[in-house]
Write a structure and sequence with these properties.
It is a single chain. The protein is of the alpha+beta class. Among the domains are: 54 residues, no CATH class; 121 residues, no CATH class. The chain has 11 helices and 6 strands. The strands form 2 sheets. The protein has a 4-stranded antiparallel sheet. A two-stranded antiparallel ribbon has the order 3-4. The longest helix has 28 residues. The chain is globular and about 85 Å long.
Length: 378
C-alpha cells in the first residue's frame, strides 16, 4: 500500500512509505531484523523565515488603506454623491475616516500577509485607473466617472484580499509589473498602428487586464527564480532599450507612429536583455533593484550631460544625446551591480531523490511498521 505524505515546509517533501498488508513476523525472527515503526513523515530542520509580525502587517495594511481613503476612496465617493462644496467635504471626511475604521476591523477578521498588502495597494490603484479610462471612453459625466473610480478601487482591494492568500511577494510584483507593462504595450501598439485616442485607451486597458496574469505566470513558471527585486530591475533595462532604439531615429524627425513602434521594439529588446543578464543570473532584493534604477538614472543623466558639454547635441534631444544617455545608463547599471553584488540565482530545483536502504530492507523482510523507501525533496 502506497501513502504520500507532505510537510508544510517551504520546500515540500514527499515521502513514499510502504506498509505491509499483514505482519507475518514470528518469534523465530531474529531481533536484529525487527524495526520499530518510524513516523510516517519526518520534517527536516527548516531555517526560520524572517517575516514581519502579524500585528505589524495589520498596522501597515490599516495605514495604507487610510492613505487610499484620503486620495482615492474619499474624493471619488464625495464627487459621486454631490457637487455642492459643503456636502462634498462632508462626504470626503466620512469616507476618508471610515477607511481607517473599516481596515482596522477587517484586519481583525482576516490574516493580512505582506503579499496581500502589496497586492491590495496595487489593485486599488489599478482599479481606479481602469475605471477612469472606462469613464473617459464612455463620455460619462463627472459623477458617473467618480462612481466608477470608487467602485473600481474598492473592487480591486476586495479582489486582492480574496485572491492574495496563496500568492507570494514575487508573484505580486510580477502581476503588478505585467499590468503596467501591458498597458504601455497596448498604448504603444495602438499608436504604432495609427489608432485614435479612444483606441489607444481601449488598448491600454486591455493590455493591463492581460498583462497582470501574464506577469504573475512569468514569475511562477520560468525555470529560474524571479524575485520581486528582479522584476524591479526590468524597468531599468526596458528604459535603456527604448532610449537606445530612439537614438537610431531621433535625427530623422520620425512620425508619431514610427516613434511608438521603435520605442516599443526597443523596450522589448531591453526586457529580453534584462531577463537574460540580470534576472537569470542573480536574485535581487527590492533594495538592490532601487540601486540599479538609481544607477541607471544617474548614468543616463551623466551621458546626456556629456553630450551637451561636448557639443554633440545641437537639438534638445538628438540621436547623440539618446545614444550617450543609453550608454551612460547601461554603465550605471553595471556599476550598481558590481557595488551591490547580488546573490546568484537560486534557480528552481527539479528535486532530489534519496533512497533509504534500511527502509527497503525492512520492507523486504515484511517488518511491521511504516518504512521510508524513497524521499523526494523539491
Amino acid at each position: 500500500m502506497m501513502k504520500v505524505f507532505r510537510d508544510r515546509s517551504s520546500r515540500q517533501r514527499i515521502i513514499l512509505a510502504l506498509v505491509p498488508l499483514a505482519a507475518i513476523a514470528t518469534p523465530s525472527v531474529p531481533l536484529v531484523a525487527q524495526q520499530q515503526p518510524v513516523p510516517a513523515a519526518v520534517s527536516a530542520p527548516v531555517a526560520p523565515v524572517a517575516t514581519a509580525p502579524a500585528a505589524e502587517l495589520n498596522r501597515a495594511f490599516v495605514r495604507d488603506q487610510t492613505w487610499l481613503g484620503a486620495v482615492v476612496y474619499g474624493p471619488s465617493f464625495a464627487t459621486t454623491i454631490t457637487s455642492e462644496a459643503l456636502g462634498w467635504t462632508a462626504g470626503y471626511l466620512v469616507m476618508a475616516g471610515g477607511s481607517f475604521f473599516a481596515a482596522a476591523e477587517l484586519s481583525r477578521d482576516i490574516t493580512i500577509t505582506e503579499p496581500m498588502r502589496r497586492l491590495a495597494n496595487g489593485a486599488a490603484l489599478h482599479g481606479a485607473a481602469g475605471a477612469l479610462v472606462v469613464g473617459g471612453l464612455s463620455n460619462a459625466g463627472a459623477k458617473t466617472t467618480a462612481g466608477a473610480i470608487f467602485l473600481g478601487s474598492l473592487g480591486g482591494t476586495a479582489l486582492a484580499l480574496a485572491a492574495g492568500k496563496g500568492v507570494t511577494d514575487d508573484e505580486v510584483a510580477g502581476a503588478l509589473f505585467g499590468a503596467d507593462a501591458g498597458s504601455l504595450v497596448g498604448l504603444g501598439t495602438s499608436r504604432a498602428l495609427g489608432g485614435s485616442a479612444r483606441g489607444a485607451a481601449i488598448a491600454a486597458l486591455a493590455g493591463m487586464a492581460i498583462g497582470a496574469p501574464l506577469g504573475g505566470a512569468y514569475v511562477a513558471s520560468v525555470p529560474y527564480r524571479v524575485t520581486a527585486g528582479d522584476v524591479g530591475t526590468l524597468w531599468s533595462s526596458a528604459a535603456i532599450g527604448a532610449t537606445a532604439g530612439y537614438a537610431a531615429i531621433a535625427n530623422s524627425r520620425p512620425s508619431q507612429a514610427t516613434q511608438s513602434g521603435v520605442l516599443l521594439a526597443g523596450s522589448a529588446l531591453g526586457l529580453l536583455a534584462g531577463d537574460r543578464w540580470m534576472v537569470r543570473r542573480y536574485d535581487h532584493t527590492r533594495a538592490d533593484a532601487q540601486l540599479v534604477s538609481l544607477g541607471a538614472a544617474v548614468g543616463g543623466l551623466m551621458g546626456a550631460g556629456v553630450s551637451v558639454l561636448t557639443g554633440a547635441s545641437k537639438d534638445r534631444f538628438s540621436g547623440n544625446t539618446a545614444a550617450l544617455s543609453a550608454a551612460g545608463a547601461l554603465g550605471g547599471v553595471v556599476m550598481a551591480e558590481r557595488f551591490i553584488t547580488p546573490l546568484a540565482d537560486a534557480g528552481r530545483k527539479i528535486g532530489r531523490i534519496e533512497v533509504h536502504p534500511e527502509g527497503v530492507l525492512a520492507a523486504a523482510m515484511r517488518t511491521p511498521g511504516a518504512h521510508t523507501l524513497l524521499q523526494w525533496t523539491f
